[in-house]
């Protein structure tokens, strides 16, 4: 029986050991980035997936295509708020991009949820911005979530609202349905950008690289849901198109967003799958793993999380 337990431990711990001894084969991690290599994915692929903490300005210096949200770009410049068709996408060989100055973005780690404050026809307030020029830019009109107000029994009631044009028809969704409908359109934006990127890079035989921010997160869509949609959509795409891109990179400014993405990406790997089975196999009293002391199990799982800068079971 002891021999059987040793075999089980070797099966489940070997991914952790191999990651620490030869990280270049599975996962690469630094203080501000984490890269999932193809060998660690749950399906055949040739695409690396990276999360990195950097600004739009820093991301624009890299080679490849950079994707930005049209609504996110509009809030960086004063003007009249307009009603755009969600999902429209435009490509530019050279495109001026706008980003808040650091001194005006001091609350970038504030995760308090805030709907987009402007409605079509309203005037946006001017803010200080940095303008930069980037090559190979895809501008996609991402969903934005605003607030609706109405009076009910002399009380002001607020609700989430999502306005969208579909088949030349203006539609409005409120409450949970607003998030549901916007989620579908947000996933579509990522798919369109990934497909358009391949069209642009079709003659680039060396490296096909695309960079994504968290679309819609700055215009009212809940950040955690937006990040999950981004990861799920990209993974589904590369699963169906394993040779499409050499690298898909998500870039974020917030430390909390980086941690969120790290957790979401690691959950897609063989390492996480094995650690999950290992951890919960101990919880099941009917398995051999339940014979191991719980403090040993916790130590192994936490050791792996610390090594990667994430919390496996948060």
Identify the notable features of this structure and list them briefly.
314 residues; alpha/beta; eight-stranded mixed beta sheet; three-stranded antiparallel beta sheet; 13 strands; globular
Write the layout of secondary structure elements.
Layout (H helix, E strand, L loop, with lengths): L1 H20 L5 E3 L3 E4 L11 E6 L2 H4 L5 E5 H5 L4 E2 L8 E12 L22 E2 L4 E12 L5 E7 L2 E12 L2 E6 H26 L8 E4 L10 H18 L6 E6 L2 H12 L3 H14 L10 H15 L6
Report on the structure:
The chain has 314 residues and is an alpha/beta fold. The chain has a domain at 55-255. The protein is built from eight helices and 13 strands. An eight-stranded mixed β-sheet has the order 1-2-3-13-12-4-8-6. It has a three-stranded antiparallel β-sheet with strand order 9-10-11, with helices on one face. Strands 5-7 form a two-stranded antiparallel ribbon. Helix 5 links the parallel strand 12 (209-212) and strand 13. The radius of gyration is 22 Å and the shape is globular.
